[in-house]
Amino acid sequence: MAARSPQETLEALKQFDTPTITNVVATYPTHPLCLGLYNPWSENWYTDQSIKCIYPELGRTVGYAVTCVFGLPEPGFKNLSFLDIIDALDESPRPTILIIQQKFPPEIAGKVGLAGGNMTASVKAVGCVGVVSNGPSRDIHEIRPMKVQYLLSGVTPGHGDQAVHAVNVPVSVGGMDVAPGEIIHMDENGACKFPANRMDAVLENATALAEEEEERIGAFERARSAEDIKAILGGHSYGKKDES
User: Fold this and answer.
1) Cβ-contact 134, 50 below 8 angstroms
2) pTM of this prediction?
3) By 3-state DSSP, what share of the chain in percent is helix, strand and coil, each rounded to 5?
4) Cβ neighbourhood burial of 227 (10 Å; 0-12, 13-18, 19+)
5) Exposure string (b/e) for 1-30, b if CB count within 10 Å is 16 or more?
6) In order along the chain (244 residues), what is the average pLDDT of each group of 10 residues?
């Protein structure tokens, strides 16, 4: 059987919801199918509840991270523009997920409708399939038919002057630290990341874990007593592999 291309692997990863991916990446470090890529609590490798999925009907979205930072314009720094983000997206392997860290003063942070219809159409044209940001955006009605997934803090209809502060640097968005080129897996539960060189292992283990969980859930559905449940769990807490 021919080896999958990275793009085929990314497409295959869309079979699984994001919680299944987190289970394989780091959630249950004692489980044989968990890769243990991060300490699940001390490292920031998935989003928190401040980030909401705007288009849950689009399902799972997976791609390579391209990162940027937006904030207020500064007279002494005009080196970067939105076109630098377009270049970074175009130079990245595809598909891409744009990770936007918004660094605005607290008094306006909730009112920055940063990414609208024009920006989304532009990034989609160079292979972007999703956006994750720690702030709001706007034009969600206009973006919906473009089928670009958004995970945001919320929505708001306007904004003022804004500027690009950095492109393809490490960022922190909604409790998740992201470096350029990492893989982002996202759905209505949120987003998580993992290194691109581990995508084949994540796919392999997610496939095996899904089969294991399907078997376990089927057993739970057939159970009729506490003793049945105990027998299924084999004395182990959820997340540890049965020894039976």
Assistant:
1) yes
2) 0.91
3) 35, 25, 40
4) exposed
5) eeeeeeeebbebbeebbbebbbbbbbbbee
6) 88 98 97 97 98 97 98 96 98 98 97 96 98 98 98 97 98 98 98 98 96 72 79 58 43
